[in-house]
Specification:
The complex is a heterodimer of chains A (561) and B (157). In chain A, strands 1, 2, 3, 4, 5 and 6 form a six-stranded antiparallel β-sheet that branches. In chain A, strand 4 and strand 5 form a beta hairpin. Chain A has eleven helices and six strands. Helix content of chain A is 77%, strand content 7%. Chain B is mainly β and 157 residues long. Chain B has a single domain, classed as OB fold (Dihydrolipoamide Acetyltransferase, E2P), CATH 2.40.50.180. Chain B has a six-stranded mixed β-sheet with strand order 11-3-4-14-13-12. The termini of chain B are close together. Classes of the chains: A alpha+beta (561), B mainly beta (157). Chains A and B meet through helix 5 and helix 6 of A and strand 5 and strand 11 of B.
């Protein structure tokens, strides 16, 4: 292999750079020409010293020898190199053009974010360049993967922060409302405490008066008890006298019975006298008159006895009523006495209770006044707490908004990371291209739809999968039944066929560039959330373009997954 | 049974009305009725005597009592005049009378509820009865009195 600086020495410096050579070859050519001129100049100096110099001849021979050696060396080394270089130059140009083309294609794929195809192109470069390019592509792929992972974590963390912030904001709102309610309750409590203090003071005064009244009442009741005891004694004396009268009445009854018997006997005696007078005839007529008078006397005696008996009956009835009344009166007096004693005891207890109530009411009044002061302090503290909670609620709302923005930023970063086509199962473009390869094996549209449906059902974050042929005709449309469970399927295969797929950005991009494409998020036709589409080309067995497979990915579900 | 007799005589000078004696009578209470016994036939009024019943005797015969040391048959006057029994009398008495015709009179006791008084029964006021033991009825002091003829009481009483 010829060194470039040696070749440069045989290169004529006045000759312009050889077109088609790389710069380093041109620089070596210039250096070879300069070296050749220097050798020619030395040879010319040797001739001049030999023919025109007056001194010794060895300097001239020395210059000639050096010049001849230089010319020999140029002829032996530099000239064959340049001859060989001149022969190999067209081949190198073709190789350089080929390498340049592969390198440009690799960088174009790299520029399009397709690290897989960029790697395929760089694998055909020279080993060192291929390793360096593969290392760079791998580092870029790893970086994109890390960015994707980090963005997912950021989005997840932001979602969690958003959820926590929302919960905390909701809780803070409730807490603020509760603090307001507690403040109102404490204010009401303070007002109530004031009323309680006033009432307790009045109650203490009333209890003091009740205690004094209780003392007066106790004395009055004791006097009443003494009076009732005296009445009871009087009633007992009346009862004893009535009992004595009853006993005397019985004696009077016996006397009346005796008088009645005497009158009856007198009556019989008068009748017998009248009988005897009649038996005596005319002589007994006067005696019969006497007998009749005696009978009348006996009859009047009987009538008088009867009258006295009636009076005595009334008198005895009155005595019995008096005895009964005095017994009842005595019992009632005993009951009144018992009640009076109970009332005296109750009044005494009431007096003591009134004294206790008065003392307790004064204590309550003092305690409620202290409570009132404490309630005022609590109200002030609660108002400060309310302000803090309101500020915290506002801060949490701001935090929630920030988390929303962070989540959106994470999603944006994810989409940016997903714009790279990586050789990773977590790369959406790679996944859809793999789907496209599986769809390539479907011989009929039915098999294609079954394959697509199977793939859609296996991927939870995909809502919808579809395939459109080269004319934009929608061949298959498959819903993820778990993702749209419970919701009406608004878009059907028939209605979707009315959409011109050739005007959809994902279809146009994939058809034009024949590589996987990813759209920005847009509103889903199926529900109120957002989705984005990832599409990839599908080829036939003969590598002809058959159509585009696309999937709609739910942003929220994909972020959570 | 009692066998009333229609013949009688006045022993004390009292008048006769169709063979019936009139004049002073002893009024007695016999059950619900007031009966008039001729005073000439009445011997004594005593407190109710203690009567010893006779088994198998007529219902009107209450039994035998002791009077003056002699046994005295006692008749229930209320049953004899078919009077409903009155209330329990306070002072029941036994009227000892001469019963039967004058030539065969005997002493009997009549148990009555009470001996009321001695009264005159004018013969003109007596409304004739059956002519036997119940001589008739007469209004005395605003009440109807059954006038009895003790001479009509038979020996077989």
């Amino acid at each position: 292999m010829v060194e470039p600086d040696v070749a440069a020495r045989v290169h004529d410096p006045g000759t312009p750079a050889i077109p088609g050579l790389p710069d380093w070859a041109n620089r070596h050519t210039d250096n070879a020409l300069i070296g050749l001129l220097v050798v020619a100049a030395l040879t010319l100096v040797g001739f001049v010293l030999l023919y025109f110099g007056g001194g010794p001849a060895w300097p001239g021979f020395a210059f000639l020898a050096i010049g001849g050696a230089g010319i020999a060396a140029y002829g032996a080394l530099v000239y064959p190199f340049f001859r060989n270089l001149e022969r190999r130059l067209p081949q190198n140009e073709e190789r350089w053009a080929e390498l340049e083309g592969k390198l440009v294609a690799s960088f174009e794929q790299l520029g399009a974010g397709d690290l897989v195809r960029a790697g395929e192109h760089t694998s055909q470069l020279p080993a060192r360049l291929s390793r360096v390019s593969a290392a760079a592509s791998g580092a870029l792929s790893s970086l994109a993967q890390q960015i994707q992972d980090s963005s997912i974590e950021v989005a997840s963390a932001a979602d969690a922060v958003n959820q926590v912030a929302s919960d905390l904001a909701s809780g803070s709102s409730q807490q603020a409302a509760s603090v307001v309610e507690i403040t109102a309750a404490m204010e009401e409590l303070a007002r109530t405490a004031s009323q309680i203090a006033e009432n307790a003071t009045r109650q203490a005064e009333l209890a003091s008066r009740a205690e004094a009244s209780g003392e007066s009442g106790s004395e009055a009741v004791f006097e009443a008890v003494a009076g009732v005891e005296e009445v009871q004694k009087r009633i007992s004396a009346i009862a004893n006298r009535a009992d004595t009268l009853g006993t005397r009445s019985k004696e009077i009854y016996r006397v009346l019975e005796l008088i009645n018997e005497i009158a009856q006997e007198t009556h019989i005696l008068s009748l017998n006298a009248a009988i005897e007078a009649v038996a005596a005839g005319a002589e007994g007529r006067r005696f019969s008159v006497v007998a009749e008078e005696v009978r009348h006397l006996a009859q009047r005696s009987q009538e008088s006895v009867e009258s006295v008996r009636n009076l005595l009956d009334e008198f005895s009835g009155s005595i019995r009523a008096t005895i009964v009344a005095t017994e009842e009166g005595s019992k009632e007096a005993a009951r009144v006495l018992e009640r009076s004693r109970a009332a005296a005891s109750a009044i005494d207890e009431l007096r003591q209770a009134s004294g206790d109530t008065s003392r307790v009411a004064r204590q309550i009044s003092m305690a409620t006044q202290q409570q009132n002061a404490a309630s005022d302090e609590v109200v002030m503290t609660l108002r400060e707490v309310s302000l803090v909670v309101q500020r915290m609620t506002g801060g949490l709302k701001n935090l929630s908004g920030t988390a929303d923005r962070l989540n959106s930023l994470g999603l944006t970063i994810q989409l940016l990371a997903q714009s790279f086509h990586l050789d990773s199962p977590r790369s959406l473009k790679h996944m859809v291209e793999e789907w496209g390869k599986e769809l390539e094996r479907a011989a009929t549209s039915t098999e294609l739809e079954e394959t697509l449906d199977r793939l859609v059902q296996q991927t939870p974050f995909i809502e919808l999968g579809y395939f459109a042929d080269t004319t934009g005709y929608l061949v298959a449309l498959c819903y993820n039944r778990a993702a749209v469970s419970g919701r009406q399927q608004l878009l059907t295969l028939v209605s979707a066929r009315e959409i011109d797929m050739t005007q959809r950005p994902w279809y146009r991009t994939v058809s034009r560039e024949r590589r996987a494409a990813l759209t920005q998020p847009y509103e889903s036709l199926q529900h109120t959330g957002h989705v984005f589409t990832v599409a990839a080309p599908v080829y036939g067995h003969d590598r002809t373009f058959k159509g585009v497979v696309g999937v709609d990915i739910n942003v929220t579900g994909w972020t959570r997954i | 049974m009692i066998a009333p007799e229609s013949s009688s005589k006045g022993a004390n000078g009292s008048g006769r009305l169709g063979g019936l004696s009139t004049g002073s009578h002893l009024l007695v209470q016999a059950g619900e009725y007031v009966c008039a016994l001729p005073l000439v036939s009445v011997r004594r009024v005593v407190r109710s005597l203690t009567v010893h019943p006779l088994p198998g005797s007529a219902p009107e015969l209450e039994g035998l009592a002791e009077f003056g040391g002699e046994p005295l048959p006692v008749l229930n006057l209320a049953r004899m005049v078919n009077a409903a029994p009155g209330a329990n009398p306070a002072y029941p008495v036994t009227v000892v009378v001469w019963a039967g015709p004058a030539d065969a009179r005997e002493i009997m006791g009549l148990a009555v509820d009470a001996a009321l008084e001695v009264a005159d029964v004018p013969s003109a006021s007596v409304v004739a009865g059956g002519g036997g033991f119940l001589l008739g009825e007469a209004p005395i002091a605003g009440r109807v009195v059954r006038v009895l003829n003790l001479e009509a009481l038979g020996r077989e009483t």
